[in-house]
Design brief:
Blueprint: H1 3-26, H2 37-48, H3 54-61, H4 68-75, H5 84-91, H6 93-106, H7 108-118, H8 122-133, E1 142-143, H9 144-153, H10 158-173, E2 182-183, H11 196-202, H12 218-231, H13 247-253, H14 257-272
Antiparallel strand pairs: 1-2
Helix pairs in contact: 6-8, 6-14, 7-12, 8-14, 9-10, 10-11, 11-12, 12-13, 13-14
Amino acid sequence: MTRVRSAVWAGLMTAAAAAFAPAAASAASCGNTAAGFDNWVQEFKQQAAGRISPATLDRAFANVSYNKATIRADRGQKSFKLSLSQFMDKRGGAAIISRGKRMKAQNAALFNSIESRYGVPAGPLIAIWGMETGFGGFMGKEHTLSAVSTLAFDCRRSDYFTDQLYAALTLVQRGDLSPDARGAAHGEIGQTQFLPANVLKYGVDGDGNGHIDMVRSKADALASTANFLRGHGWRPGGGYQPGEANFGAIQGWNAASVYQQAIAQIAAEIDGG
């Protein structure tokens, strides 16, 4: 190898090492127990300072702690292993249908407006709304930022939930999520239980007040849900039962087959009656 080629080769190796070194150095260490979580938070805050303001980081992490309930929930999702009839019984499918029909009538103008804009009829939106939170009646009790931070720290899906954590912090920074917000065990937010990154991507200001409030505004939550379904291939006028054009959009909402079938069945009952 000539001296010139050797120099070039050495330069390339140095550049490659420099390219990879910062990434390795910047990754906060994950863990599978509470040990090390507080140190991880401090490391993460240092890394995040280039994307999120220090003031926001201080506010957001002021009350964050390792959430054991989140870890238990993440390790023990059993209801999706039930049959469709068992799942419907467990999740109160008949009650969701009965109340959902009343909600459709009481909010007809809202649902007509959403369908006009996004092409999604009331049934699937009401089915999701009822299944996720009982129409906003129970949105979860876990501290949202603690839940998402715990899963970002946990080694099982650290990269995925680190993205969710950055999204949650962005929502805090722009005033669309309280640092004290509470929700589901995996950090889902609001009346239809959006993960933070989906709020950023599909969130809609349905009531026109200048903010996307998934917790207090049913218009925001339902319009955002319709926008999510449209973003996953929903086509106006198409069917949404298994094998039909829009069932794939429902599959995009939740990966569990039994959940998908339940949403389709509840929605058809609501839209049909």
